[in-house]
Amino acid sequence: MANNRVCVIINLYCTAGKEDEFQAFLINAMQETKQYKGNLSVEVRQSATEPSFFRIMSEWASEEERLIYMAWRQESGFIDQLASFLTTEPEFIVKEMELVFN
Question: Cβ distance 94 to 8 under 8 Å?
């Protein structure tokens, strides 16, 4: 179980016409995330066929470190800024996963 990681997928729909601004906002924010204690990886993807759909995928060393990060994001006002771009609530998938092949 020592190789377990917390894997997170966040699905986001931004307001049509705001895709470029939203993409820049996410890239800037995720550069900070990459440096955050406990973050092992983070990437942002944008749908090629539905440009207002974005997905953030990240891995964390522990759930405790992820929760500390999320509290920081809430306190910093990031969550409110993020919400201002969105047309729906974010969909979060958070699972502790064991690596079985790499």
Answer: yes
pTM exceeds 0.70: yes
| Residue 7 host element (H or E) | strand 5-13
Closest listed residue to residue 7, CA positions, set 95, 98, 70? 95
The pLDDT tens digits for 56-70 are 999 999 999 999 999
Whether 4 contacts 88, CB under 8 Å: no
**CATH architecture of structural domain 5-97:** 2-Layer Sandwich (3.30)
CB 41 within 8 A of CB 6: no
pLDDT tens for residues 66-92?
999 999 999 999 999 999 999 999 999
- Tell me the one-letter amino acid at 82: L
Domain spans of the chain? 5-97
* Tokens read off for 101: 């092949």
The residue behind tokens 């958070």 is 94
